[in-house]
DNA sequence: GGCGCTAACTTATCGTGGTTAACATATCGA
DNA sequence: TCGATATGTTAACCACGATAAGTTAGCGCC
């Protein structure tokens, strides 16, 4: 069995119509996502496996994607689209910091729902210069951006460019999501609570950090904290 | 050139003495670390490449490591040992929260110095039950643990089990380290400042979060913050 | 109807990588 | 000296990513 088996001789897959080569493109993407979701292992998404699922030979993949990395990136882009949609909703009039924490937790939950997709999305090399601000242009990031701006208007953060704040909060969300996925056996306790706790702590910390001034040392904070009335 | 070339026929590597098969074990580990550090790419550390560097044929690796994953895990364990040593030092009498932030930043810097090692350490699957608390038993984690206990004694955190606090802080450190490695092109600004900022914010946030009470909502925080005198 | 163009595939093949089975040999205790 | 065995090597298998070259089906056109 050294040769790869043909797709399925009994049902010879009908070749796509002349202009509709894009059909296969979509099917390949779906198959790749499905393989990742079902097996849960990134290495299971081989070009050959994807081709088998679609019912096509492996070189056909290369008619629609330049190489494996392109396929992975396409899957990831698709995923981030879904994430953006999910972060969009929310009750109007929701306090901005509540909204920010909710979005952060939603981000983490999304990552936990499709851990292999998330791993690929955040842990691939992809140091390509061309895609410099690919992340920053996702709708998910735009939603974060928007909510942070609302927080600034509410006086929770100092007014200015929301991007640094967004990056710091994203780092916190990514950190807990990533570790929950990679080290699930650690004593995290309830996952939702852990996610919520870290997001709240980071958001509050950034706010207090700005309140105390960017040049405040940890010792300054300790002194200030000691001066707070007990609750 | 389909066959693999022999190591080096001109200098026939002396076989190790009867009891010293462990020599090769160490050399393999060094070679694997070296390949990762030099090339900076995880895929460059193939079994065959490691064997070539050592001057041995690839199947010999399997006399000392069960499979590639075992070799990777061994490299990672070695790395965490180095990390633990580095986190150990520090001036006596250093305020505990300063120490905590310094250790967090040192952790992040360590990750940035050997990004591929770090990627392997934190992003591999390794869901093996046997190694349940492998991370928690590293000296690096022990140092975090110790410093957090000192913070608790200083009233910065509520007294109790340091492990949850350590995990949350570790998540923050890992998040920023991981993103700095995976997405270096994002506008992080100065890397050291970013690391320090996130660590400080998270530590302060956890402290304030405990001060306000675990059940405090983000809205509670906003109300409390608005009551603070302007600085 | 038939003819050619070409999009949409397949077949065959290459090189690399992880892993294993079978074989070889140097070392060491008895 | 001699056999047991630790310490390797040779040869091979199979899966994978990728490419080159061949094939076929749909479509416009006369």
TrEMBL record, chains A, B:
Superkingdom of this protein's organism: Bacteria
Please state what the protein is called. Answer: TetR/AcrR family transcriptional regulator
Bias category Pro residues: which stretches? 1-10
Q: Which residue numbers delimit the DNA-binding region?
A: 46-65
Identify the PROSITE patterns for this entry. Answer: HTH_TETR_2
State if Plastid is listed as a keyword: no
Pfam families, from UniProt?
Answer: TetR_C_33 (PF13305), TetR_N (PF00440)
Q: Which Gene3D superfamilies does the record associate with it?
A: Tetracycline Repressor, domain 2 (1.10.357.10)
Span list, region Disordered: 1-22
Q: Where is the HTH tetR-type domain?
A: 22-83
Lineage of the species this protein comes from: Bacteria, Bacillati, Actinomycetota, Actinomycetes, Pseudonocardiales
Q: Which UniProt keywords apply?
A: DNA-binding, Transcription, Transcription regulation
| Matching PANTHER family | HTH-TYPE TRANSCRIPTIONAL REGULATOR BETI, HTH-TYPE TRANSCRIPTIONAL REGULATOR RUTR
């Amino acid at each position: 069995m050294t040769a790869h088996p043909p797709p399925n001789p009994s049902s010879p897959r009908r070749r796509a119509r002349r202009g509709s080569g894009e059909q296969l493109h979509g099917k390949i993407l779906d198959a790749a996502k499905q393989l990742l979701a079902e097996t849960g292992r990134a290495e299971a998404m081989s070009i050959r496996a994807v081709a088998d699922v679609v019912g096509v030979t492996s070189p056909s993949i290369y008619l629609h994607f330049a190489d494996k990395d392109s396929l992975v990136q396409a899957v990831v882009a698709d995923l981030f689209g879904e994430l953006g949609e999910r972060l969009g909703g929310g009750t109007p009039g929701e306090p901005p910091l509540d909204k920010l924490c909710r979005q952060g937790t939603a981000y983490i939950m999304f990552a936990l729902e499709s851990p292999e997709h998330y791993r690929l999305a955040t842990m691939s090399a992809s140091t390509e210069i061309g895609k410099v601000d690919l992340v920053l242009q996702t709708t998910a990031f735009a939603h974060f951006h928007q909510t942070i701006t609302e927080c600034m208007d509410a006086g929770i953060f100092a007014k200015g460019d929301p991007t640094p704040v967004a990056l710091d909060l994203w780092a916190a969300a990514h950190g807990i999501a990533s570790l929950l996925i990679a080290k699930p056996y650690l004593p995290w306790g309830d996952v939702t609570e852990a996610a919520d706790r870290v997001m709240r702590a980071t958001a509050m910390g950034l706010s207090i950090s700005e309140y105390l001034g960017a040049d405040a040392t940890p010792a300054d904070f300790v002194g200030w904290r000691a001066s707070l009335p007990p609750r």
